[in-house]
Amino acid sequence: MKKRFKDIFIGIILGLSVVVICPAVNIKAQMEPVEHEELKSHEDSNVVKDSTEANSTLFDKATEAYKHLKFVQYDGMAEEELYPILKDTYKEIAAALELEELEESQLSSLYGMIRDIGPQFMRAAAFYSGKNDNENMTDFASLYVNIMLEPEYKMPKSTSSMYPALIYIAASGAYNSEKYPEAIKYLNAYIDTGVTDRREQVSMFLAQACLNNGTPELGIENLISSVDLYPANFNLLMLTLQCCIDGGYTDKMQPLLDKALLMKPNDERLLSAQARIYEAESNFAAALPLFQQLYDLKPNNLSVNQHLALCYYNLGAEYHNKALTETDEKAAKRYERQATSYFQSAEMYLPTIVNNDPTDVKYLRALAVTYACLGEPEKLDNLNTRLVALGQQPVQMNIMPDSIVFAEQTAKGDSGQIIPDFQTYAEKYVEENLSEWTKRKEFEKMEDYQSRVSQNNVYQEYQRLCKLAEESYLARYAGRLRIADLELQPYDIDNETYLITSAMGPMAIKVPLKNKEAEAFKAAWNSIQLKHPRFFIKDNQVAIASVEFVTPAGKIYAYNSEAAANYDFTDVKIDVGSFLAQGNSRRDNTPMRNTTASSSKVIRAQSDVDINIPLTSRVADKTVALIIANEDYKNVTPVASSLNDGETFAEYCKKTLGIPENNIILKENVTYAEMIGALEQVRQYIQALGNDTEVIVYYAGHGFPDEGSKDAYLLPIDGDGFSTATAYPLKKLYSNLSQMGAENIMVFIDACFSGATRDGGMLAEARGVALKPKAVNAEGNMFVLSAASDQETALPYTEKNHGLFTYYLLKKLQESKGNVTLKDLSAYVEDNVKKNSLSINKKLQTPTTSVSGKMKEIWTTKKLRP
Predict the structure, then answer these.
(1) CA nearest 702: which of 660, 758, 620?
(2) Separation in Å, CA 449 to CA 385, 440, 495, 579, 798
(3) 419, 443, 430, 644: which is closest to 540 by C-alpha?
(4) Beta strands 556-560 and 541-550: pairing type?
């Protein structure tokens, strides 16, 4: 008969032994008494307004039940009579919420009812606690916690010290009723409150609930953090290790094992767990002595014999395959001798295992392969007869042996977890956090609140939360990547490629056919290790960005997604403007950019130069503007605010300088090939418009010097900061522009060429020191205003969401409405950047000007705006 409160068992070694970790525990029995005084009464929330006319019977019933509850409540009904009506009312509302087609007003009304009656469940739990009515106390506590945890209800975050106690009561009821999914939810919620009272006990029950429910992954993170809080609790440590084993979280086990082995260095369970980690990593050489130690202690233990045999077998297969693929004859012979030694050891253990279960195909095949590799045809024939009788293919003498793993490693994990698409997850994440952030704090003066929740600050917080949402989504759902989650498809001999499929999309990796390398890869498939997996979001789901496949022989085959290489930040489509309205914090009437749900562009923080952009009625139809803004580099650090720099400069070109939109070439995050293509576009424009065409070129992004020649280069987003092969020489840029036939060329460069980055680091970390690049002078009829001199850095103006150089360039265009000479513009930018760089960034930045050709004669009077 199943007992209500079972002893907590843990079998860390999965077959070696079963160990009682802690005695039977009844949460209710051990839970501290919950006094009525502890569960203090709270004031009612706002009463929802009269609902609109109902469109269904269930909605009508819910509304009537709610009205009746409010009536009897106001009429002063005694609590003993009131709370059963409260529970019935909630049931009616919950039933109405199950309707598939509710009008928005009806849904809002039902949610309002829930928010209104929610606090009454807390008072009801307190009432029944005082009556020592545990059943009703638990029911009302559970209902209250469920309401608080349901995000759709948007309940205010509880600050009551009573809330953790209610969660504990709900968890107690669920655990003791063996409703483990609910218990896990409540126990995690208790830990998430940050309260330390009862946390040690709660963590123990969380671990056991996860194990009982077969979903260890639902508590693993909280359990690991609890182990850090209670390092002396060996039972908690062992339960957490069991969750790691059951969930396949071998990557999280080593720190836990290290702690446990310090406490009990000769514990058989821990030695076994350590050996299994090595085995799961295909480090059979490290696992072997540990299993041998366990064998010496328990030579008749079947599990130990199986692990020991497979370690010897897999090492034999590894060296045998190395010998087959090795081109050096001496090395091949050495590998074959090692393989023979390991196979001979495997032969000592495999027959006992096969005799124990003559139908176990895995070990029969392992023994047959062992005989084949040892050159024992008679024994092989005998085993093949048995394999064929069991419906298996016979093993050939000249075989390339496959690796074989222990049973638990091949099982695919499936927690039944439903993974939402990224937008659904991120919208909820950003909206909830942004809503909380825009609320006025209890002791926050209105003027401080309005300053904090300004338009710019809301945009900045939105961007921060978008990035956090992406990180949170990947951390939560990308999970572990195991070889058991992947399927190796037949070899594509024409392209010498293996296709590997998974729930996260297909991968193709190149494996040469030469020297039997492709065959060796397939043979080692079960023992291949997946190293450095990276994930990204593709088509609103988790996808594999890159991963390395490492064979037991140490060969590495890398997969890199082309889509990931071109991946940009995923925009979260919410109406940020509604939060501005909610906060009542807008201080001007300027339109908000890209705030609609249909927008596909990232909403960026705005400064004073991003708004109130001057308009001109003049049309500069003989001017072409090329704007390149590189922010999201693939191989080096990003350049903060570059995209905003480029987009805003484009707005000034159109609105303030009067350049037709069709004449503005705005390129964002361009590769080397795209940079060449953009310059070719400029050439075509000049040919079409004539020789009296003027050209404006703006660049924001990385620049860097060649370490040998000290020549300056612009860095496309696919460059790496070390090689100039995929970088564009600055001298070549000026030369090409000067030869296109334009009348005048004006260039603005918000980049430095010392190798430093906007954030103060080095573009190529190995360099460690800024270099002094060669000076590059303007060519032809050209004016160049560049952001920094010599070894200086082109610094950011973080508060304004721009580069410091670009901010003052735009500021002068704004103040002058574009009616400024090149000389005055450069003088203003040079003076303000130099003067403010020390106070803003604690580093000096000095823009430079270079003028050539006839531009030397006219730049003192020449204006950007015609």
Answers:
(1) 758
(2) 83, 6, 63, 14, 21
(3) 419
(4) antiparallel
Give residue 49's identity as a one-letter amino acid code: K
Phi, psi of 475 (to 5 degrees): -65, -35
Whether pTM > 0.85 for this model: the answer is no
Instruction: Please give the distance of CA 121 from its chain centroid, rounded to a whole number.
Output: 37
Q: Which residues pair with 559 in a beta bridge?
A: 547
Please answer whether residues 51 and 39 qualify as being in contact, where contact means their C-beta atoms are separated by less than 8 angstroms.
Answer: no
Looking at the DSSP bridge assignments, the partners of residue 745 are 695, 782
Tokens of 132: 């020592």
- C-alpha 20: how far from its chain's center? 38
| Across 42-51, 327-336, 627-636, 773-782, least confident range | 42-51
Q: Give Cα 79 to chain centroid, integer Å.
A: 49
Number of H helices, E strands in the chain: 30, 19
Reported as a single tens digit per residue, the pLDDT across 223-239 is 999 999 999 999 999 99
Token code pair at residue 488 = 């190796």
Q: Write down how long the chain is.
A: 866
For 497-529, write each residue's pLDDT tens digit.
Answer: 999 988 888 889 999 999 888 998 998 888 888
What span, in angstroms and rounded, lies between the C-alpha atoms of 402 and 278? 19
Confidence check: pLDDT of 479 > 70: no
DSSP state of 571: P
Torsion angle of the four alpha carbons 423, 428, 429, 435, in this order, in degrees rounded to the nearest 10: 130
Q: How far is CA 490 from CA 496, 528, 693, in A?
A: 11, 17, 59
Q: Nearest to residue 804, comparing CAs of 771, 762, 836, 848?
A: 836
Confidence of residue 205 (pLDDT cuts 50, 70, 90): very high
Which are the contacts of 773, defined by CB distance < 8 A and separation ≥ 6? 705, 710, 711, 712, 753, 754, 790
Instruction: Look up residue 512 and give its two tokens.
Output: 């040469």
The H or E element that residue 688 is part of is: helix 672-689
Cβ–Cβ under 8 Å, residues 658 and 866: yes
| Rounded Cα gap, residues 692 and 374, in angstroms | 85
DSSP-derived secondary structure letter, 641: T
Strands (E), 589-634: 623-629
14 pLDDT more than 50: no
Tokens 């419906």 sit at which residue? 391
**DSSP element (H, E) containing 8:** strand 8-10
Q: Could you write out the DSSP letters of every residue in 13-27? A: TSSS--EEEE----H
Spatial contact of 755 and 763, defined as CB atoms under 8 Å apart: yes
DSSP-derived secondary structure for 196-228 = -TTHHHHHHHHHHHHHHHT-GGGTHHHHHHHHH
